[in-house]
Amino acid sequence: MTSAANAVGGAKRGPRKGGVDKEQILAAAREEFALHDYKGTTMRSVARRAGCDAKLIHYYFGSKDELFAEAISQVMESLQIAQWWVSQAEEGGGGGTQVLRQLLNFVETNESGPAYVAMVRALSSEEQVRQMFLDRITSRVALPTFTSLGLDQVPVRMNLMTTQLLGLISVRYIMKFEPLASMPRDEVAALVGPTLDRYMSPDLFTK
């Protein structure tokens, strides 16, 4: 079959050379989710912000759920939490406080911080997206980290860590419960960090 026939037959087209790439779409998606939350964001609105056709977004991500899950997973990966934890463990100290300090600094000072908070808000109500996000974070961040540290019971540890990380973001930035919402970042990190260290302890399930 010729290339012309393929085009007529509806072959799936990829990106144009020199056009908008995947990373630009993800950046546009984070901005849209930050401004309009999950429900108010559409593939077309992301396409307009990215300067591309909505079909290109479907080509890369398939659906809005997939786009959202990839966008928030990429933000989590960019924080390099796994690298922090491994380096702290190798130095013989707990990394919980450092990881939380890094996370809180990101949310409050990085331009992608508002998008991250908006995405966390959506995770509480969008079950399918939540599962996609957990699958990505488990395979890309949690499993490699726990394996490199020789830790067992990965799913349970992951769930426990999530209660702290996402729970803290929800209470501090979404529900804005006082006094936690106004406490200094370093103080919050110092208070919650040891709990994360406990979840990363090799003997968590033996005590």
The low-confidence parts are: 1-12
What's the overall geometry?
globular
Mean pLDDT: 83
What CATH architecture of one domain would you give? Orthogonal Bundle
Helix segment count?
A: 11
Radius of gyration: 20 Å
| Percent in helix | over 70%
Structural class: mainly alpha
Task: Encode the helix/strand succession as letters.
Answer: HHHHHHHHHHH
Largest sheet: number of strands, sense, barrel closure: none
- CATH class annotation of one domain: Mainly Alpha
Number of strands: 0
- Our measurement of the CA-to-CA distance between the termini, rounded to an integer number of angstroms, reads 66 Å
Q: Do you know the CATH topology of one domain?
A: Tetracycline Repressor, domain 2
β-strand amount: under 5%
Provide key terms for this protein.
207 residues; mainly alpha; Tetracycline Repressor, domain 2
Q: What would you say this structure looks like, in words?
A:
The protein is 72% helix and 0% strand. By secondary structure, the chain is mainly α. The chain has a domain of 127 residues: Tetracycline Repressor, domain 2 (Orthogonal Bundle). α2 packs across α5 and α3 crosses α4. The N terminus is likely disordered.
Summarize the structure.
The chain has 207 residues and is an all-alpha fold. It has eleven helices and no strands. The protein has a domain at 73-199: Tetracycline Repressor, domain 2 (Orthogonal Bundle).
